[in-house]
Amino acid sequence: MAGPDIGSGILAEGLPVAVIGAGPCGLAAAAALEQAAIPAVVFDRGCLVSSIADYPVYMTFFSTAEKIAIADIPFTIAHDKPTRRDALAYYRRVVEHLALDVHQYEPVERVWAKRGEFVVHSRPRGGDVVETRCRAVVIATGYFGSPNALGVPGEDLPHVTHFYREGHEAFQREAIVVGGGNSAAEAALDLWRHGARVTLVHFGPGFDKNIKPWVLPDLQNRIKDGSIAVRWNTRVTAIESGRVHLEGADGPGILPAQHVYLMTGFTPSSQLLTSLGVEVDAASGVPAHDPATMETNVGSVFIAGVLASGYDANKVFIENGRGHGTLIATRLREGWAGKA
Ligand SMILES: Cc1cc2nc3c(=O)[nH]c(=O)nc-3n(C[C@H](O)[C@H](O)[C@H](O)COP(=O)(O)OP(=O)(O)OC[C@H]3O[C@@H](n4cnc5c(N)ncnc54)[C@H](O)[C@@H]3O)c2cc1C
Asked: Which of 20, 109, 134, 178 is the most exposed place for a label (fewest CB within 10 A)?
């Protein structure tokens, strides 16, 4: 299913480019388009930069501010690394400064090509479907499409979450952290620092390779001195209101659990992409695209941000995803100029 090739954008002259996802990379794309005098309209199913809003409350970035700044708008802070709060303020400021047209709490349900243009179906919260005609589409829907479920009974109980916010709620209570990656490591440490009784459960024999180097020694010391318990080679088989059932190397077991944090990662959604005819590699989850322009195998359909890295969110992040917008704006400008 071929989308309108860039040339046909001429026919839809005056229509905006739709950017789906107001994360840092979607915003960078909208800013690059506006700075290239190409109107853009941005849709987000949640608030502005909602993935950052969903970070742990007191999270500090591993990047320095200038590495996650976008649209050549300085991100100035007085301290070393930006906090989650700094970043939220900064991206709000970028939207205000550039007067970007951002539709928050308006999920895009469907996009399709029609006679040299695209139609975007979005639904403002509590409202009816809105149809937006546009001349090209940038899909920047990120990585946090859907949490990787354990698929065990009790996973939807109220004391179970895939999002870690802060540890205060678990002070002097039994907290189970499931996972072996960065989020699990940082959640376990933060919970311990908030006075929770923490046990980390992971199906592997140890932590994932990509644990941030400054996190691991701290955590290993806590495990060594017994202040954080750990169950390697162990899976959670069921969750009940006050305990979890485990299956590990030494057989079945039960642990008290008043709070359960499932730090099991996320899978990006490719529904919008495949519905437009974009090919997505089954093994890597990477959408077919030209890295020089971020255009997919469907004309005038582009991707931006972490979505371009498929199942491995460590490949593309803000630092190296924020430049995708400029490639897209250049491709569109040149494409339209070539056809005018
Ligand atoms: C704890 C933590 C710390 C991190 N620290 C850093 C760091 O220091 N430096 C760094 O570079 N990166 C860091 N990252 C990674 C960074 O957050 C991501 O790489 C970045 O958010 C990717 O940006 P994005 O715009 O591609 O996607 P996202 O930020 O995920 O944005 C995608 C947006 O699309 C929206 N969306 C999804 N589906 C739809 C739909 N159908 N309709 C409308 N909207 C939709 C979502 O609501 C979301 O707002 C960190 C990540 C985590 C979890």
From this structure: 109
Cβ < 6 A, ligand 1 pocket: 20-26, 43-46, 50-51, 55, 59, 61-63, 68, 107-108, 140-144, 305-307, 317-319, 321
The answer on 181 and 52 residing in a single domain is no
Q: What integer is the mean pLDDT of 198-225?
A: 93
Separation of alpha carbons 234 and 137, rounded Å: 44
Count of domains observed in the chain:
2
pLDDT grade for 1, boundaries at 50, 70 and 90: very low
Distance 142 CA to ligand 1 centre (A): 5
Q: Are residues 224 and 308 in the same domain?
A: no
Residue 141 Cα: closest atom of ligand 1? 34
Reading the block at residue 251, the tokens are 């057989």
Examine residue 15 and state whether it is found in any structural domain, yes or no: yes
Structure tokens at 275: 């519905």
Could you give the percent of the chain with pLDDT greater than 90? 88
